[in-house]
Amino acid sequence: MNVDQMNQAEIFEMLEGKGFQPFVDRLRYVLECIQDDPEERPLKLQSLREFAKWLADYEVLTSDMQISIFDGLIHVEWHLNTASALMKFRLDGKIRFAATHTVRKGMQDTDTKENASRTVQDYLLLGT
Questions:
Q1: Which residues fall within 8 angstroms of residue 100, CB to CB, at 6 or more apart?
Q2: pLDDT of 27-37, one tens digit each?
């Protein structure tokens, strides 16, 4: 089934089947935490869909990755010794990202998942 036609439960089941159980557990935990907070917006299904598609294509970036939800969008971030990065999964399929490194000028942009992922990976590799 196409991810763009799946509901939240189906996406979680698909991710679990692909070995991404820790990320599904984290998302469930975060969703549980924000459900009773009137200031938090609920998770937007399209952001989850975009994250699921990205996760399958960019598994190499999942090491040391933290997941959170802000304003209904999934955010992932990394904090390494000398580098850090953040990605926000927008509803239009693009990724808003920021990356910093102690010896390289930081940057932020909105781009395709391919370009955003490549840039973030370059910064993270400098931090290892």
A1: 83, 84, 85, 106, 123
A2: 999 999 888 88
Q: What are phi and psi of 105, to 5 degrees?
A: -60, 135
First to last CA, the chain: 37
| pLDDT beneath 70, residues of the chain | 128
Look up tokens 């609920």; give the residue: 42
What global pTM score does this model have?
0.91
| pLDDT for position 57 | 86
Residue 63: predicted pLDDT:
82
CA distance 127 to 112: 23
Give me the count of residues in the chain: 128
* Beta-bridge partner residues of 69: 74
Q: Give the dihedral sign, CA 12/14/17/19.
A: negative
Cα–Cα distance between 123 and 98 in angstroms, integer?
Answer: 10
Per-position b or e across 37-73, b if 16+ CB within 10 A of its CB: eeebeebbebbbbbbbbbbeebeebeeebebbbeebb
